[in-house]
Design brief:
Layout lengths: L7 H22 L7 E6 L8 H18 L5 E7 L4 E8 L5 H18 L5 E6 L2 E7 L12 E6 L9 H18 L3 E6 L2 E7 L5 H19 L4 E6 L2 E7 L10 H38 L1
Antiparallel strand pairs: 1-4, 2-3, 3-5, 4-5, 6-9, 7-8, 8-10, 9-10
Helix pairs in contact: 1-6, 2-3, 4-5
Length: about 290
């Protein structure tokens, strides 16, 4: 047989392993869609000066914020000239990877421009990140740290005894944990998945007080709801009750395990392809020597 030809069984093995590799490796990059809009808050006031100047300043802000999102979860900056100045910041959830944070923040300019246009101040909150800006020197409504901006309560309620006690225990753990963990806390507490995060520049005690206020809102407005999300000006919290047990997708262990398995299997497939090719070339070399 010609040394440049490859037997059919060998081709089959290579194609199968290559296909497996192609299916497995993309899973390493798989992630949840963190760009889902949670809520937006746009000022009723719009810029009276040059809209082009305001738009250019916002564009400059985003150009400065975006690179920071690949290494930071929270960043504040200002931009402008003698005509207009704007201060802004972004924040990502602390459980996002660097590439997930970057991807989420990269979505914000388009969403903000679409929903708030020339508003003097705006806040756009996606599932994985949010962005807030205010035009300097203009009459923008002041907000308090504990002001309620958005909330959701599931219509489905938890029936039976024990839920209130379980929720109180999980909330107590979350309230203390968000302070001790530096402003972000997520855990599974028996049948409850809870999460809390404070704005990046909010100190420990102030963060704890903000989350305490958010918990109070959830208790008063959502009661026995199976899930709730509460967003105050400088913090947010959420909980979800799973009567049949917390699924793997809401477990940190499950998420990291899934990525690890994909990487290991993808690497194994790559090694398999390399091994077969090595055997083939060795075989070709032997035939040429005959």
């Amino acid at each position: 047989m010609d040394s440049t030809s490859i037997s059919f069984p060998l081709v089959s093995h290579i194609l199968v392993l290559s296909a497996s590799l192609g299916l497995l490796l993309p899973c390493v990059e798989c992630s949840s869609d963190f760009s889902t809009l949670v809520y937006k808050k746009c000022s009723n006031q719009t810029y009276n000066g040059s809209t082009e100047s305001h738009s250019q300043t916002l564009s400059s802000l985003f150009q400065e914020l975006l690179p920071q999102s690949s290494t930071s979860r929270f960043f504040k900056t200002t931009a402008g000239d003698e005509n207009v100045g704007i201060s802004a910041f972004f924040q990502c959830r602390n459980d996002l990877r660097n590439d997930e944070c970057y991807s989420c923040v990269n979505t914000l300019p388009k969403v903000s421009n679409s929903l708030c246009k020339q508003a003097l101040a705006a806040r756009v909150h996606l599932d994985g990140c949010y962005f807030k800006y205010e035009t300097d020197g203009l009459d923008v409504e002041e907000t308090s740290t504990h002001e309620l901006l958005h909330q959701t309560c599931s219509e489905k309620k938890v029936a039976g005894h024990g839920f209130e006690e379980l929720k109180n225990a999980a909330f107590a753990a979350m309230e203390s944990g968000v302070v001790s963990e530096g402003g972000f806390y997520e855990t599974n507490y028996e049948f409850l998945h809870v999460m809390a995060q404070c704005q990046g520049d909010l100190g420990g005690c102030d963060c704890g007080e903000c989350i305490s206020s958010a918990i109070q809102v959830a208790e008063e407005k959502c009661g026995a709801s199976i899930s709730s999300q509460v967003y105050l000006d400088k913090c947010f919290m959420s909980y979800t009750y799973y009567p049949d047990g917390i699924p793997e997708k809401d477990s940190n262990y499950g998420k990291s395990t899934g990525r690890t398995v994909a990487i290991v299997l993808g690497g194994a497939a790559l090694l398999g392809v390399g091994f077969i090719l090595l055997k083939f070339f060795k075989s070709c070399g032997k035939k040429e020597d005959i």
